[in-house]
Every structure is written in C-alpha cells, then in structure tokens.
Amino acid sequence: MRSILLTTGACSITVDDVRRLLTFDHIHRLELRNTGLVPDDHLLDDMAKAWPMLEKLHITNVGRRIPCKATLSGLVPFSKHCPHIANLQLQLDAREVSVPTNTTDASRDECREWERTVVLTIEQPSKINDSTGVALFLLNLFPRIMLFIPYEYAELQQDFLWRRVVKIIDGTELTLAPTNS
C-alpha cells in the first residue's frame, strides 16, 4: 500500500487508529480529510520514522474549530527521516518557537537536501507570537520551503503575523541584516 486517502463525515478517527497504519512502511501519500484527527508531536514523530518514503502528508479538518496539539517541533522528524517529503498540510501551534538548530541529517546527500522544495500549507493557522522566529525555524528545517496560508482569517493580528512569515520566507521582507562583530 503506497497511498491512503480517507475522508469522513459524521465519524472520527483517533490517534490509535492512525498508529495501526504505522506498520505499512511503504506509504508515500497519506491524506486524512475531515477525520477529526488531532495529531500531536509524538504522532508526527512516529509517522516520520515509520514512513521514510513519505512524500505527501495532509491532515485537515476544514470548517472544524479543533484546537491543534502539534507544534512546529513536530516538523523536525520529517526533515530528518523523510528525504522525499514534498508536501505537508497540517494545523500547527506556532506560539512557541524553539531556537533553530541544524536538523540536517549528516548521512543525507547535501546536494539533494538543497534541491528539495517542501510545500507547507498551514491549515487554520494558530496564534503566533514571533513571525521572524517561525520563518527562521522553517527555513532551517527546509531551506527551500514554500509556505501557504490558504484563507484570510477574521483574527487580523494572527493573519497579519502568518502573512509576514510567508513574506520573510519568500524573501520579500528583509528582517535580518548581517552583523559584523
């Protein structure tokens, strides 16, 4: 089995339901639409480790106001364990940003790392405190990342800060200048 697409209406799936899929180690694409699943960083870590061939992961709950449990740190395992990842669509909590660290796996071919473009779509953006910190964190994980925020949201401050992250990543807003010490 290489691809799984699951869309539900009235019922939901749980983290335990998804854990049963971890035995299918050749999954390339997983799309869970409107399933009510709320992944956390531990589940994302397990997914990345179990599915090294993963290219596309979409977990969406459009129209449902479900608080997210996954944080930006939940993306780190994908940069380490999934060299083919090209498309992520998730809801992430971006209020806390850890200090960017070098997450590149030394065993990976560095040329391949720089050629890979990862498209990240933030489904129903969470609150955000530090646009620059979020942008730097994402760029450190995936140097050729493309970030999309699919909708305009009523919470203007939140929308403004996420749009600023997109501008920083796109290079249209210069926020950091090199320092000469």
SSE layout:
Layout: E1 3-7, H1 15-19, E2 29-33, H2 41-50, E3 56-60, H3 76-81, E4 87-90, H4 110-115, E5 118-122, H5 131-141, E6 145-148, H6 156-170
Parallel strand pairs: 1-2, 2-3, 3-4, 4-5, 5-6
Helix pairs in contact: 5-6
Q: What portion of residues is helical?
A: 25-40%
> Which range does the strand content fall in?
15-25%
pLDDT below 50 for ≥5 consecutive residues: which ranges?
A: 105-114, 174-181
Count of folded domains:
1
Fill in the CATH topology: Leucine-rich repeat, LRR (right-handed beta-alpha superhelix)
Number of strands: 6
CATH architecture: Alpha-Beta Horseshoe
Tally of DSSP helical segments: 6
Q: SSE order, as H and E? A: EHEHEHEHEHEH
What multimeric state do the chains show? Answer: single chain
Computed CA radius of gyration, to the nearest angstrom = 16 Å
Main sheet properties: 6 strands, parallel
Structure description:
The protein is an alpha/beta fold. The N and C termini lie far apart (54 Å). Helix content is 29%, strand content 15%. Mean pLDDT is 81; it is low at 105-114 and 174-181.
